[in-house]
Write a structure and sequence with these properties.
mainly alpha
Length: 147
Amino acid sequence: MQDQRDGRDGRDGGDRAPKDGGQSGQRGGPQGTEFLELELSRMLLSRAADVAKEAAIDLLREAVRERLRERIGDKLAAIGHLAADELAEDVAANLEIEARIAARMDRAANVGGRLRAVMAETHKPFADLPRAPAKKSAGRGRRRKST
């Protein structure tokens, strides 16, 4: 598991110059052989080493999970259930609050329509309204004397 750049991984550390002096823009070799990866086996071996490292780490993760499950799995499950229950309560409370806010916003948005309905129920033409009795003069004002 060496990580040296000595060419064994198929990467030579730089761009390959064409054998024709850079004139054709090809990687080199005869025309029609651009698909060839001449050190493909070395590149694959290097990649396989990387995959092997990842697989070893995955196995370590599995082993740690198994051991934790054996030793304290019931406690970890109980803690997980508690955390899940708390989250569920928070979500339920938030959804209830959101529903109440949405209902209030709907009522507030419809207040104009409700006001028109109230006005339509109580609106009567002025001719139909009872008139207030006329006030009688109590003689408190100054009277003119006629001469």
